[in-house]
Amino acid sequence: MELKVLRSQAGPTEQSVLLTREEECSLRLKIEELEGARSRLEEEKKRLEARLEQLTLAGDYDPSRTKVLHLSVNPASEARQCLRQDQARLQEECERLRTLLGALERGGAVPAGLEAASLPSAKEVAELKKQVESAELKNQRLKEVFQTKIQEFRKVCYTLTGYQVDITRESQYRLTSMYAECKDDCLIFKAAGPSGTTMQLLETDFSRTVPELIELHLLRQDSIPAFLSALTLDLFSRQTQA
C-alpha cells in the first residue's frame, strides 16, 4: 500500500498527513526500536560508570597522590558527550513518534509539523506489498495442493479399505462402508487415550444390528481391523446373495 500524504487547504500551519493502519504499526515498531536503543545506551552508561568505580577502588586512581592531566581532547569526555547526545536524540524521536501516533489514534489526522520521516518510503511500501502478495499467493497454492492431496488420500483409503472416513467432530470419526445398504448405515469411533491411541465404538442404529461381530472381534479379540474386515465381508455377502 502506497504511503498517502494529504494536505488540507486551511493553510501551511494546519496541513496534515493521513496515515494508514500499516503506517501506524510502523510507527509503533519504530518507537519500540528507539526505546530499545535508548535502554541499551543507558545500560552501557551504567556499565562504564561501574567499571570506572571498580578501577578507582582497585587503585588505578588515587586523588590524593595522583595528578590528573586533563586533555584538551578527552576521549572519555567525548564518549560521554556522544552518549548524552544519542540519548537526547532518541528521547526526542520517541516523543515525536508518540505525539504522531497519539494524533493518529485521536482522529487519523496528523499535523504537518510532525514529519513522518521515520515511515517507510513509497518504494519500500511497494516492495513490502509485493512480498506479501507473493507470500499469500504461495500460501494459497499450498492450500490447494493440500486439499487435492487430502481428497486423493480419502479416495485411496475408500478404495483399499472399503470405508469412507469422515470427521464428524473433534476426535470422532464416521465410517461408512461402500457395501452399506443405505447411506445412514455407519459406525462412529471416538479417539481416546494419549494421542488418540485408543478408539472406542459409539452406539448407533447400525452398530446395534451387528452385536455378534462386536462381541467377537471387539470385546473378545480386541481388534478393530478384524471387526471392520468381518463387517465388510458380511455386507458384501448380503449384496451378492441379494
Textual characterization of the structure:
This protein has 242 residues and is α+β, with helices and mostly antiparallel strands. It is built from five helices and six strands; from the N terminus they run E-H-H-E-H-E-E-E-E-H-H. Helix 1 packs antiparallel against helix 2. The two termini are 67 Å apart. The model is unreliable at 1-18 (pLDDT under 50).
Entry summary:
The chain is of the alpha+beta class and 242 residues long. It is 57% helix and 12% strand. The strands form 2 sheets. It has a 4-stranded antiparallel sheet with strand order 3-4-5-6. A two-stranded antiparallel sheet has the order 1-2.
Distance between the termini: 67 Å
SSE series:
EHHEHEEEEHH
Q: Please compute the radius of gyration using only Cα atoms.
A: 37 Å
Mean pLDDT: 76
Shape, please? elongated
The major sheet is characterized as:
4 strands, antiparallel
Could you give the count of β-strands? Answer: 6
Low-pLDDT residue spans? 1-18
Into which percent range does the helicity of residues fall? 55-70%
Output the strand order for the largest sheet: 3-4-5-6
Question: Strand share of the residues?
Answer: 5-15%
Number of H- or I-type helical stretches: 5
Structural class: alpha+beta
